[in-house]
Write a structure and sequence with these properties.
A hairpin with a 2-residue loop joins strand 7 and strand 8. The protein has a 6-stranded mixed sheet, with helices on both faces. The protein has a 6-stranded mixed sheet with strand order 8-7-12-9-10-11. A 3-stranded antiparallel sheet has the order 13-14-15. By secondary structure, it is of the alpha+beta class.
């Protein structure tokens, strides 16, 4: 194989038979789908995973790097967890940073495929080109920090990926953790790993350097150009570094689109108390950065004498405004519990917010709460109910492990779950940022902001300022952002780079690393191919056209007060045009579209 940034090797782990096999990477498919998200979705689709029970041994989990993971390029350390989601019943694809993905690539592997189910807890230990399954009884049941420390007793240099007690309990809110406080979140991917009696993967790379690429001089030039643009950009060069992702709290609240008290309101009069600016003034110790990241948006904070990873914007919103809480210390404590138990720090607090509305309306009773009422504004409630969810304590805590949709459906009111395809929407009210509503509705993995971040043009004015309350043209913007995001994910880079970079820069970086010769238009077509393949997976999994929608509250109920008062989502004005641009009928690709994209 000529020099390329693909490692060229994949580990296939059969947990049922406790075997580990090395396979050659299918380079043709890798380049056709870039890698990471795209390549793994293709493999799962081809191996029939779309039709299996998500928590059965027949489901598979692919933990995949991209061709830039571990390379000398900005933010080139991402990896993804791709499987069939137990939360949505559709494709799950969860992205994480830290150093784990780069370490796996440096050790010589593009991906790890997990299949089957072990009859006792196991974990995988990788040291460069050697991989072996080891007994995990000694770390099963442990929270993230304790389990990581136990692995470090025997492998002190390992980067550790694992599930916490929530994943072991098969919670639909469970995520996969790495490097203590980085998370491959959303969609219940941790539950699928847990269903296989699999705790995690420890990876040690003795080379510790960046990986080889096809054209080192070209990559150095593309890297220099990208770094310059990232430093010059107001978001990546200033805002995110100074205040983290929570710089958005005041910005989004200022336009009246910060969902409050389970989306019953959209403006939080106490938002300043939980803002990125307040976090920087009160709890921040230093910035945190993932592998080769010049942005350093991570927050390292001190809480009760411990120095730990701090909360991101979505988490601050979900525990804060969405639960009516303005206590930043309680929010940070709840976030830390999510990291420790392996809970998704959007879905877990959104489940609490839904439970608070059920309690507000008398559907959850005082007796159900067992001493900790689920009252909006209760700092005690967000901390204790996160702990109960993580530990599976109390009957209600176990029910909340299943996520907001199943919780609300249990009480006969699924409309109080602010979710799309059973996955909770994040921190942008789609009634006040119209394009984001279309993104939520058409996301292949359910309610999600990182499948097409239209907040960038609609609110931040990048790459140009759009009218956030208009619907004209939003379908095309949505499609382009979704396709480009699929490219960035599959490359193994961070989505935040797209505040400063566009398709031409990503094409230059990818071509230099892999030896491909994509133009900007061609690389967007690869993203379109990936997005359509995910939709085909969902169709095979049983998705219906009616699943491309928003909660009734967002569709029908106008925002009650604030700068966006009176607005509804206007989804119906955008969805038809979006399908037409995609070449879809009834929410799914036509034969002609599949043929055009080589699907």
């Amino acid at each position: 194989m000529s020099t390329t940034s693909y490692a060229g090797k994949v580990l296939r782990v059969d947990l049922t038979n406790e075997t580990v096999k090395t396979e050659d990477l299918d380079l043709e498919n890798a380049k056709k789908f870039i890698g990471g998200r795209g390549w793994a979705t293709k493999l799962l689709f081809d191996e029939g995973v779309a039709t299996v029970d998500p928590l059965s041994p027949d489901n598979k989990v692919i933990i995949a790097t991209g061709p830039l993971s571990g390379a000398a390029a900005p933010t080139a350390g991402r990896y993804m967890v791709i499987t069939k989601s137990p939360l949505t019943g559709m494709i799950a694809c969860s992205n994480s940073g830290g150093v784990w993905g780069a370490t796996l690539k440096s050790a010589g592997w593009d991906a790890v495929i997990l299949e089957g189910k072990a009859d006792h807890p196991l974990y995988l230990n990788i040291v460069d080109g050697k991989a072996e399954l080891l007994d995990a009884d000694r770390i099963w049941g442990m929270k993230t920090a304790e389990a990581t420390a136990k692995i470090h007793e025997t492998d002190p240099d390992a980067s550790v990926l694992l599930i916490g007690p929530a994943g072991e309990a098969l919670s639909e809110n469970a995520c996969v953790m790495n490097d203590l406080d980085r998370a491959a979140g959303r969609s219940g991917v941790g539950a699928v790993v847990g269903s296989k009696n699999f705790k995690g993967i420890a990876v040690t790379s003795t080379s510790r350097g960046t990986i080889d690429v096809a054209h080192p001089e070209n990559l150095a030039k593309a890297n220099k150009d990208a770094m310059g643009k990232l430093k010059e950009n107001g978001v990546t060069g200033e805002g995110l570094g100074a205040f983290g992702t929570a710089v958005l709290v005041n910005i989004i609240n200022g336009i009246g689109s910060l969902p409050t008290r389970n989306w019953q309101e959209s403006y939080d009069e106490n938002a300043e108390m939980i803002s990125g600016e307040t976090l920087a003034e009160t709890l921040l110790v230093k910035n945190g950065a993932c592998f080769r990241c010049p942005i350093a948006c991570g927050r390292i904070i001190e809480l009760d004498g411990a120095v730990i990873g701090g909360p991101e914007y979505e988490t601050i919103w979900a525990y804060g405004s969405n639960c009516g809480v303005d206590n930043l210390r309680a929010i940070s404590e709840a976030n830390h519990l999510c990291n420790e138990y392996g809970l998704d720090s959007i879905s877990a607090p959104c489940t609490i917010a839904s439970a608070m509305e059920l309690y507000q309306r008398g559907l959850i009773t005082e007796a159900d709460c067992e001493g900790v009422p689920l009252e909006f504004g209760s700092a005690e409630a967000i901390v204790e109910w996160t702990r109960r969810m993580g530990a599976g304590e109390t009957k209600l805590g176990q029910l909340m492990q299943k996520g907001s949709y199943r919780l609300c459906d249990h009480y006969g009111h699924p409309e109080y779950s602010m979710s799309v395809k059973k996955q909770d929407m994040p921190a942008y009210d789609a009634r006040g940022v119209k394009g984001m509503g279309l993104t939520y509705a058409t996301s292949n993995r359910g309610g999600c902001h990182v499948r097409g971040y239209l907040t960038s043009p609609e609110v931040l004015g990048i790459p140009e300022q759009l009218d956030r309350l208009a619907t004209d043209g939003k379908a095309l913007w949505c499609k382009i952002f979704q396709d480009l995001t699929a490219v960035i994910d599959s490359m193994g880079m961070c989505l935040f780079t797209s505040f400063a970079l566009g398709a031409p820069e990503y094409a230059d970086i990818l071509n230099a690393a892999t030896g491909t010769k994509y133009t900007a238009d061609e690389i967007l077509e690869v993203g379109e191919r990936i997005y359509n393949l995910e939709r085909m997976f969902n169709q095979a999994a049983g998705m219906k056209a009616s699943d491309d929608t928003l909660p009734k509250r967002v569709l029908d109920d106008p925002i009650v007060a604030g700068p966006s008062e009176g607005e509804t989502s206007d989804l119906d004005k955008m969805l038809g045009e979006y399908y037409e641009l995609r070449g879809w009928e009834g929410a799914f690709p036509t034969a002609a579209t599949k043929a055009k994209l080589g699907l």
